[in-house]
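Hi all, posting the design record for the shared folder.

TITLE: backbone redesign
STEP: 1 of 1
STRUCTURE INPUT:
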């Protein structure tokens, strides 16, 4: 079992994320005012596939979360959902390594965010990801929602 406090390199902090990510994480983030937040994780035994390296689905999960958060941030905090996601696996990520991705916003429109990112272990590229995130419109409050809140 990996100790959450020792799992990330210096400069990375724990990213609090309940739900699915809490099950497969923890994930860590690194902030840079000049760029979208980077995300990473320390590959443990629970991330292993049948040949003893990081399961591709975990790499996809990291990329989807990192690019998704970058989409929300680029959209001014408005919720975004993945509508297209492509992943290319370049080489294996070994267990025990710290895998990270630095998202890049390619284009922001009024309704879509275009992003890409390269997953790395140190300086070695292990996968690349790209996708589109739909910016959701605020939901209108219905009369039944208003009534439910009154008690």
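Okay, here is what came back for every position:
SEQUENCE:
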């Amino acid at each position: 079992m990996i100790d959450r406090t020792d799992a990330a390199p210096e400069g990375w902090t724990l990213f609090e994320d309940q739900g699915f990510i809490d099950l497969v994480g923890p994930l860590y983030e690194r902030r840079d005012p000049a760029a979208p937040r980077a995300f990473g994780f320390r590959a443990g035994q629970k991330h292993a596939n049948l040949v003893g390296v990081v399961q591709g689905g975990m790499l996809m999960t990291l990329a989807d979360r990192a690019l998704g958060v970058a989409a929300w941030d680029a959209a001014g905090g408005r919720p975004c959902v993945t509508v297209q996601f492509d992943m290319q696996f370049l080489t294996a990520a070994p267990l025990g390594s710290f895998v990270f991705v630095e998202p890049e916003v390619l284009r922001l429109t009024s309704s879509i965010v275009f992003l890409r990112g390269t997953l790395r272990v140190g300086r070695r590229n292990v996968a690349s990801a790209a996708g589109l995130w739909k910016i959701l419109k605020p939901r209108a409050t219905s009369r039944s929602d208003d009534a439910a809140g009154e008690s």
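COMMENT: Residues 13 and 28 are 5 Å apart (CA to CA).
Let me know if anyone wants the other runs.
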